[in-house]
Amino acid sequence: MKQIRTIQISGLRWYIAVLLFLSTVICYIDRLTISILAPVIKVDLSLTNVEYAAITTWFLISYSIFQSVFGGIYDKFGTRKVFSFAIVIWSLAAMLHAVARGFSGFAFYRFALGIGEAGNWPGSIKTIAEWFPAKQRAFGLSIVNAGAALGSVVAPPLIVWLQLSYGWKTAFIATGALGFIWLVLWLLIYRKPSEHVWLTQKERDFIQDDKSEIIVNKNITQKRTWKELLKLKQVWGIILARFFGDPIWWLYLIWLPSYLYDVRGFSIKDIGTFAWLPFLASGIGSLTGGWLSGFLIGKGKSVNFSRKFAIILPTFFMVFGIGAIYSPTAIGALLMMSLVLFGFQFWVNNVQTLASDYFSISEVGRVTGMAQTGAGLGAITFTMLIGWIVDHFSYSPVLVIGGILGPMATVFILVLGGKIRRI
Asked: Which among 78, 114, 71, 83 has a CA at the least distance from the CA of 186?
């Protein structure tokens, strides 16, 4: 799609961020459809919790592997083409869930969905790194991360309404089709800054004139190999932080509806009414975390101090899931879980920014992809463990483990990351 050259849009980078926000909203609606419908699907297909965990794990396997694959592809072919390819794959896969007839069918289409959705985060983070200077990247990413929250807020009532009105097959078709609407907007609007005819010269100069302290040498053009990147402790700090931190998010994303149904006695209608509350809190956490580090940098604090402060502070919120075990009411448990997800999105928004803080634009896609793969592997390990623990014991040990993972993840960043600056 060709762009109209006479158009000049002030603040175009924010429109790009909104596009990424919308793709993430759709990504999470598609991802959550099976989680919201799990109580119905498990009964219809006579699935155990371990079998349900296995279905979701097939998604996580492909999602984890292809994060790194997409990271390299984005660095080589650019965001416009690759993002388009990714959303076509995941939208088709989401719709095809409607023809699944059992465990194998769901597992296959979850695997395909994971391949496509693996392109969302490496593409989003690389795009933000291209379009935003360092002092605004965390807030730019917070807008994208807020899409995860809004998608998770919108999904329960939307999917439950579709299921109650038209059946679960229609729910998969309707939610999967949303990606094709987004694709039209993406092809119409998106170009990289150097090629965008709608970008004003003032904004182009602002994007390029990055005076942050982390840019210690603007003439750095060397592009390290995968092997060279994997020798850097900063890369491993990010990977291990995501490996231990991201299972917290997946715990609630995959298992919250089942927990409310099995432990708190919620009906499917109750899930649609209340299950979005922790994800609303996560959106607030995402925007707050992105704003805070940028605010501190704007006030003259170093990038090193600002990012670390915005990573350490929310770590304390992520232990509140343990309190949900002892809450006498479901609303109290949801409040505790809301604090966890507020803290997680606050935290991960700044952790995701680290790839562009440490590395050049030509390396951000690969480092991000490796970090996302680490996140996926952690989610796979923990998700299968949850299924076994719940079938043999209860949700209580799961919530305890989830409360410990956040502090562990932050320690890896502080120990291995060192001072946050361009390497």
From this structure: 83
Q: Which domain holds residue 267?
A: 12-189+225-417
Q: How many domains does the chain have?
A: 1
Q: For residue 253, what is the domain's CATH number?
A: 1.20.1250.20
- For residue 344, the Cα-to-chain-centroid distance in whole angstroms is 11
| 278: nearest Cα among 328, 243, 246, 320 | 320
pLDDT tens digit string along 36-85? 888 888 777 777 777 888 888 898 889 888 877 887 888 888 888 999 99
46 in a structural domain: yes
Q: What is the DSSP string of 341-382?
A: HHHHHHHHHHHHHHHHHHS-HHHHHHHHHHHHHHHHHHHHHH
- Considering the domain boundaries, does residue 276 fall inside one? yes
**pTM: predicted TM-score of the whole model, two decimal places:** 0.71
Residue from 412, 377, 385, 415 nearest 401 by CA:
385
Contact residues for 392 (Cβ-Cβ < 8 A; gap 6+): none
87: in domain: yes
Residue at 120 is within a domain: yes
Q: Report the chain's C-alpha Rg in angstroms.
A: 21
pLDDT in tens, 129-139: 888 887 788 78
Report d(CA 27, CA 7) in Å as an integer. 30
